[in-house]
Specification:
- This protein has 300 residues and is an all-alpha fold.
- It has one domain.
- Helix 2 crosses helix 9 and helix 3 packs antiparallel against helix 7.
- The protein is globular.
């Protein structure tokens, strides 16, 4: 078996799940559940699952590391999900998938400031192009009637930044502890952060929701939260944060394919209308930016 093949397969699965989750979560919000309520259910359900698994792995965490794990839980779970669900509830799933591609660019920039990694001319050019593509996409989101929202896309951009910071901060912890130990404590801290936001709207939840909505909620808790965080943290332990984040390239590809598929089946869907040539140009700018930041050999 090739070295780190399982880590790469895990990242492939993560981004396939995320690509579909943009649409699955959109079916629930905001008509059936408010974003903060959905987040509370998501974090609570996943926290229980992680602690059930951790029962079989006994590992003590140093008291001095608890604040670091709490910080990772804040950026990687609480703030990340609060921003993402708020943004997705008012913007296009395709826009959200495209903007998330900026994560490797942001990881490179944050790694330079936090981990003191070397930054080359390739990376400077990549950061510039990637951020330019994201800014243009956010600007275009205010044009036309395609389900896009500038405010929603700004939330998604802030979410991508929070997630990128998580990828950088979690790496030293994974060098010291098992992934399941880190993620269990991480979600526990995050639960107490999101609790005040979601508890006021919890009365909106009802098991009388249509089956498709209950399926969507279950999918987001089991796959988009439990499985993806578990797979992702396993991969980050084996690979660098930059490599792990570069797999996010696949999210808009999956999202666009799913969007076209939904539009073919449901003529009332406007997902295909959200895929315009100017947005494709912005996506290309982001892709080129991510490619340049990921190159080890000097090109320019």
């Amino acid at each position: 078996m090739p070295k780190n093949l399982l880590a790469h397969l895990a990242l492939l699965a993560v981004n396939l799940i995320y690509g579909s989750s943009h649409f699955i979560a959109k079916e629930v919000m905001p008509d059936y559940l408010k974003p903060n309520t959905f987040i509370l259910l998501r974090v609570f359900g996943a926290t229980i699952m992680f602690w059930i698994l951790r029962y079989f792995i006994r590992e003590k965490v140093d008291r001095n590391d608890l604040w670091r794990i709490a910080l990772v839980g804040f950026f990687g779970v609480a703030l990340n999900q609060l921003l993402f669900f708020q943004g997705l509830s008012i913007t296009s799933p395709i826009d959200s998938a495209i903007i998330m591609v900026t994560s490797p660019v942001i990881v490179t920039l944050l790694s330079f400031f936090i981990l003191k990694t070397k930054i080359t001319s390739n990376k400077i050019a990549g950061i510039s192009l990637g951020l330019l593509g994201a800014i243009c996409l956010i600007y275009l989101s205010g044009k036309g009637n395609t389900g896009s929202s500038m405010k929603g896309n700004l939330f998604i951009m802030a979410n991508a930044t929070s997630y990128s910071l998580y990828l950088v901060l979690v790496k030293p912890l994974l060098a010291k502890y098992k992934p399941l130990t880190v993620i269990s404590y991480m979600f526990t801290f995050a639960f107490f952060v999101v609790l005040p936001f979601g508890i006021s709207d919890i009365q909106d939840f009802s098991f009388n929701f249509p089956p498709v909505v209950l399926f969507s909620i279950g999918f987001i808790i089991l796959f988009t939260t439990f499985c993806t965080y578990l797979f992702n943290i396993f991969a980050v332990k084996k690979l660098s944060p930059t490599i792990a984040s570069s797999y996010i390239y696949l999210q808009p590809v999956f999202a666009m394919a799913i969007g076209f598929g939904i539009s073919l089946v449901n003529s009332n869907s406007n997902y295909a209308a959200a895929i315009t040539w100017p947005k494709m140009a912005c996506t290309l700018l982001i892709f080129v930016g991510v490619y340049l930041t990921s190159r080890s050999k000097k090109l320019i």
